[in-house]
Structures are given as structure tokens and as C-alpha cells.
Amino acid sequence: MFDLFGFGHLLLQGTWVTVQLALISLVLGLGFSLLGAAMKLSDFRLLRFAAGVYTTLFRGIPELVVILFIYFGGVVIVNAVARQLGYDRYIDVSAFAAGVAALSLTFGAYGTEILRGAILAVPKGQVEAARACGMTSLTIGWRIVLPQVWRYALPGLGNTFLIILKETALVSVIGLDELMRRTEVAVGYTKQPFTFFLTAALIYLGLTAIVMLVQRKLEQRANRGVIARSAV
Amino acid sequence: MNVSLMIESLPALLQGVWVTLELVVAALLIGFCIALPTALARLHGNALLRSIAVSYIFFFRGTPLLVQIFLVYYGLSQFDFVRESALWPILRQPYWCALIAFSLNTGAYTAEVIRGGIQAVPSGQIEAARACGMTPTTTFVRIVWPQALRHSLPAYGNEMILMVKASSLASTVTLLDITGVARNLVAETYMPIEILSMAALIYLAMTFTLGQGVLAMERRLAAGRS
């Protein structure tokens, strides 16, 4: 059924690249978010300032410009650095790496603000009470703060991931063979633009629906203690 | 960094600012006109209207904007009846196709923003208005809408900023907005860092100004509250 003039399996391969791109960007982006939130809440003004510059830049510049900058500018920078280090062969930056860098940095910028808000939302009294019980800072972070941060941050992080999932389509502009690029190739051969772009749209819609489902399950799990208490 | 090239590229990039601004303002206006009836249909419509609104919102929020632009610009030409229709002179121009896609996209997001704003109005106020003898229309115009606007302003501000950023996709259908001009200049000069930084700075200035404008408006509207 999913033949599409023989291009069905190509679209599926592209979908797999899209999924990989989105998932790797999610993992790295969560790392940037944690780092950014820690910097924003730190006592050092310089760290706070650096995190502020980071979130302002990546939330205020279009993702397409970020992708183009990292791909075309990244080649120039990487080669200049390599030449300084005495390596004089040309180094190519792969479209996949550029896409992951752009999308995870963007995710990190939005995630920083979400995590910062979530950390601040944990009542101070709980941390003080944990300390009074003799918990170390590490135990407090692991047992008291993080589980609640996770609960507060999940809706925002889920929405941001949905945005990133859709923005993977932009990486087709620099020639990565993901779903959108494969679709354009298929359109070039078959001259059936509506059929193929609609198919791509439906695949993205399916991916979105799956992410929404997983997000709801995770939220239910993260909220299980809270729901049980309100039911009493 | 070649600073003189950055300064030289400025006039060309500023030409692109006009295209970007035109697209954003027009798409936001048209999108808002789509969003209000869609939000109302989703909240108060009959089963048919509601399901149309829900599917429209789901489709345009669940698929990439790039796919939507390509569906309108390349996709519609697949059908002979579109190419023979009176609308073809419009539908074959990238400018109008980008505008149509942007408007439909922001319309779907804005509809959800407005829906949230309307739902945030306490139901007691609506019941009180009805008890005073207001018709549903008067209740909406005098009681619900003014408050819904205020509730939705922060989220709508975000949507406006996202629209400015999303407008960079116009460059994918050959339009010479800020990104389009920048991509051409990069191809001419092979100086991606200088040109793209300049474009990024212009976008930053636009999103920052817009963000401050929305904040100022929120403060003004909040002044009415005790």
C-alpha cells in the first residue's frame, strides 16, 4: 500500500533520519538546558550573563539562519582552527552534525528557561526540611528537587520537543537526506508535488501524535503521587 | 571578521527587512481573522464546525511550516483545475503562496491562544451577564472578549515573535526577505559568517523590539486591574 510510485521506502528511510536527528537533538538539548539553568541560577554574575546571552540569541534568531550559520560558517571556523593547529587538509562539516548542533542548541535555549522556572517552583521549605533531616546536597537534589522539577518541566519540554521535531524539516535546506529532502527528490522524479508533500505532512503528523501520546503517559507517571493525593 | 563587508551588506539586507515586515504583518492580520472564528467554532460550534476547527488546528500545528509552504507553492500546481482557475495568477507567485501558508499556520496557533484566553474568563461572570438579560452576543462583546484579549496577550506576543522567525522560510521559495538576501550574498561573497551574523543581528533587533512592545502593552492593560 505504501508504495507511492516506488518512493515509499525512500520516504521511510528519510523518516528514520528525521527521528534520529530529533532524538539526538533532544538528548543533547536536555544537557544544554540543565547547564543553562544551572548557570542562570548560579551565584556568579559572569555565568548568569553568559546564559542570558545564550538564551536571547537562540530564542531571537530564526532557526533557519542558525542552521545556515552553523553549516556554512562552521566549515570556515573549523578549518581556520585546524589550520592554526597545523592541519592543512580541508575538513567537511556534515549536514547531520550541523543540524544536530543547531537543533540541540535551540532546544537548550528554550529548555533553560523551562528548567529554571521548574527549579524555582520547588518550595524552599522542602529543601530546608531535607537539610534539617540531615540529607546531603546531592541527596536533596536527587530525591527532593529533581523528581519535582521533572514534573513541572514536562509539559514545556514536551512542547519544545514538538517544535524541534518539526524544525528538523529545515535541515533539508542544507541537503541532509531526511524526510523532507527525500520528498523533494521524489517530487522531482514523479511530478506529483501535492501527493508527496501531503504524504510527508501526514508522516510528520503521525510522529507528532506519537510524541504527544508519550508525553501524556510520562506526565501521568510524573504526576502519579499528586493525583493519588487529590483523589482522597 | 571582515567588518567593512558587514557594513556594505547592510543596505541590501535592509531591503529584505521590508519584505519580511510586509509578510509578517499581513500574515498576522489575516491569521487573526482566521483564528477568531476558528476558536469560536471550536468552543461553541456544532459537531461539524467543531471537528473542522479541530482538524484544521491539528494539521497546521502538527506539520512543519516548510511542508505547508511547499504544499501550497508546489503542491497546488499538480491539479489542472487549479491551473485553469482564475486564481492561478495569484497561486503561482511565491509571495502569495508564502503569505497563504504563513496566514493559515499562524491562524491555527492563534486560534489556540484565543481559545485559552476565552476559557480563562470565569464562568460566573458569563452567568451574571446572562442573568442581567444580556444576549449571548452582547455578553461576548462586552464581557468575554475584552478579558480574553488581555489573557491571551502574553501568548500572542510569543506567537508574533515566532512568526517573525518563521518568516525566514520565505527564502525557501525564492523570496528575497532578510534570509533570502543573506543567502544570495553568501553565495556571491563566500563570507557566510559576516553576512549571516548581520542577518541574525537584524532579526534579534526585530524580535527584541517586538518583545519589549508586548511587555509595555501588557503593563498598560494590567493598569486597569486593581
Features:
heterodimer, A: 232 residues, mainly alpha, MetI-like fold, 9 helices, B: 226 residues, 10 helices, 0% strand
Explain how this protein is built.
Chain A has 232 residues and is an all-alpha fold. Chain A has one domain (15-231): MetI-like (MetI-like fold, Orthogonal Bundle), CATH 1.10.3720.10. Chain A is 81% helix and 0% strand. Chain A has helices at 8-40, 45-60, 63-84, 95-121, 124-132, 137-167, 179-190, 193-222, 224-231. The longest helix of chain A is centred in the N-terminal third of the chain and has 33 residues, at 8-40. Chain A is flat, with a radius of gyration of 22 Å. The termini of chain A are far apart. The model of chain A has no long low-confidence stretch (mean pLDDT 92). With 226 residues, chain B is mainly alpha-helical. Chain B has a domain at 21-174: Orthogonal Bundle (MetI-like fold). Chain B has 10 helices and no strands. In chain B, helix 1 packs across helix 10 and helix 3 crosses helix 6 (94-119). In chain B, 38% of the residues are buried. The mean pLDDT of chain B is 93. The chains are: A mainly alpha (232), B mainly alpha (226). The A-B interface holds A 56-57, 59-66, 68-69, 72-73, 75-77, 166-170, 172-173, 180, 184, 187, 191-195, 197-198, 200-201, 204-205, 208-209 and B 58-59, 62-68, 70-71, 74-79, 161, 164-169, 171-172, 179, 182-183, 186, 192-193, 196-197, 199-200, 203-204, 207-208. Chain B: InterPro entries: AA_ABC_transptr_permease_3TM (IPR010065), ArtM/GltK/GlnP/TcyL/YhdX-like (IPR043429), MetI-like (IPR000515), MetI-like_sf (IPR035906). Chain B: It is a multi-pass membrane protein. Chain B: The chain crosses the membrane at residues 12-41, 53-76, 195-217.
